[in-house]
């Protein structure tokens, strides 16, 4: 099994093992109240068991923008789905790093969006569905030419006992029946193990996964397991105990239920600020796939942002593998301009301020060497050059950087912080703050200050500022 022996793995973990965990069909729900006392903030407990890292040879990202993402906002129009799907395709690149995207098929509109995306004929992201677990919906998916579909198999006792009113044995039988229906129709079932981070891992999750792997062997159909951290309880601390340990869950499914990495997918939520780290940990410990949404939209605090995992992919693999990361900026622009979605300015990689600085001392560094205060060449990689926001503390260096970046001045054209123009702008900025201004300066305002200064003296600026003069006059 050469593919399992790579630089991150300590042992070959996928061999048959002697731990035959069977279903514990308990009479009373196990709600792990030691960790999840509802009247208290949940606790992270430790059993000090650590598990080996195992980075799969191939990792990828799947998308849930049109399913979990859409559940948490006003539904997208058909055009919006198609536009965003095209951007996902662009981000994915020819190797299919964004491998799949899941769609609803409930309404006419859902089906039209799916059909229009399919008609584009892209190999990646492959379109999959999410359906109600009944034969009619399987048939619908099949008729539409769908190969794989997600089905809900909630696995904590919160769901089995308290929501569905069943025993674990009844739930298991029901789920296996649905999976068999899908297999009989030739559809690949993707089993969404809802609430896995509050489930009895050895008493339900592993025995159920073992049954699924038996069906996989009998049918030859690659049944997938999506590990859903529904309320974001997953943690990555070494030695944290199950069911909250992300690496423990991934390792346990691989080792005790013999689920191969290629059939394991992590789906997280951000309730405790851990969504990105949890997804990366799932990769590192043996899940080939992580499920994400654009800008992390999704239930409550959202899902794992696809842009974060695209960047994390490059950090872990050392290559973009054909992904066009500029699509990240286009996705953000689309959300802001077309969907009127407010992106928190501090959001990494997409927020207005993610690579901008206000502090004069940072701007001074940027002026000397951009690398000092920018995380990477964001201009080249994301199409987002580093920027300086002019505020009370920007100083001469900040203003000089703003002028150079805003007017794209290069080489000898660049303006120095000691230049007379920079001093004039600074004087005006200082005057306004002295008079009680509290907000930062917008680009238009700064352009007007430059127009009012005697810009003709600054050869490098003449061409640009003359244009500004025209625009500003037209706007006046
Ligand atoms: C509905 C389920 C599958 C889900 O998306 C989740 O658990 O987060």
From TrEMBL:
The keyword Transferase applies. InterPro entries: Aldolase_TIM, PYR_CT. Residues 59-329 form the Pyruvate carboxyltransferase domain. It comes from the Bacteria. Transmembrane segments: none annotated. Signal peptide: none annotated. Keywords: Transferase. This is 2-isopropylmalate synthase. It comes from Christensenella tenuis.
């Amino acid at each position: 099994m050469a593919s399992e022996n790579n630089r991150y793995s300590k042992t070959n973990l996928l061999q048959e093992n002697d731990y035959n965990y069977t279903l514990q069909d308990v009479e009373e729900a196990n709600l792990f109240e030691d960790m999840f006392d509802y009247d208290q903030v949940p606790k992270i407990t430790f059993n000090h068991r650590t598990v080996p890292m195992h980075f799969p040879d191939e990792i990828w990202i799947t998308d849930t923008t049109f399913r979990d993402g859409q559940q948490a906002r006003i539904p997208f129009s058909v055009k919006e789905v198609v536009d965003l799907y095209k951007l996902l395709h662009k981000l994915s690149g020819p190797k299919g790093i964004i491998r799949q995207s899941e769609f609803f098929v409930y309404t006419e509109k859902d089906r039209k969006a799916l059909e229009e995306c399919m008609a584009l004929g892209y190999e990646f992201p492959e379109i999959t569905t999410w359906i109600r677990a009944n034969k009619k919906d399987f048939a619908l998916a099949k008729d539409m030419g769908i190969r794989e579909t997600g089905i809900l198999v909630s696995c904590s006792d919160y769901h089995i006992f308290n929501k569905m009113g069943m025993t674990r044995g009844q739930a298991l039988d029901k789920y296996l029946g649905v999976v068999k229906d899908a297999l009989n129709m030739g559809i690949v079932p993707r089993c969404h193990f809802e609430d896995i981070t509050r489930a009895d891992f050895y008493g339900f999750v592993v025995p159920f996964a073992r049954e699924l792997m038996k069906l996989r062997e009998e049918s030859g159909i690659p049944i997938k397991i999506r590990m859903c951290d529904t309320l974001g309880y997953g943690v990555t601390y070494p030695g944290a105990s199950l069911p909250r340990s992300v690496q423990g869950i991934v390792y346990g499914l691989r080792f005790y239920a013999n689920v191969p990495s290629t059939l394991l997918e992590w789906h997280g939520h951000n309730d405790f600020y851990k969504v990105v780290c949890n997804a990366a940990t799932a990769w590192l410990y043996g899940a080939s796939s992580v499920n994400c949404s654009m800008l992390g939209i999704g239930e409550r605090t959202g899902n794992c942002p696809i842009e974060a995992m695209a960047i994390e992919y490059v950090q872990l693999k050392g290559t973009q593998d054909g992904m066009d990361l500029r699509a990240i900026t286009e996705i953000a622009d689309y959300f802001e301009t077309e969907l009127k979605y407010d992106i928190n300015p501090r959001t990494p990689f997409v927020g207005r301020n993610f690579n901008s600085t206000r502090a004069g001392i940072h701007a001074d560094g940027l002026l000397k060497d951009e690398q000092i205060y920018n995380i990477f060449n964001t201009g080249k990689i994301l199409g987002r050059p580093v920027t300086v926001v002019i505020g009370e503390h920007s100083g001469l260096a900040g203003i000089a950087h703003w002028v150079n970046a805003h007017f794209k001045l290069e080489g000898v054209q660049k303006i120095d912080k000691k230049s007379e123009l920079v001093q004039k702008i600074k004087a005006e900025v200082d005057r306004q703050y002295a008079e009680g201004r509290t907000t930062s300066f917008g680009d238009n305002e700064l352009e007007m200050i430059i127009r009012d200064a005697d810009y003709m003296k600054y050869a490098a600026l003449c061409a640009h500022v003359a244009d500004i003069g025209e625009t500003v006059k037209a706007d006046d």
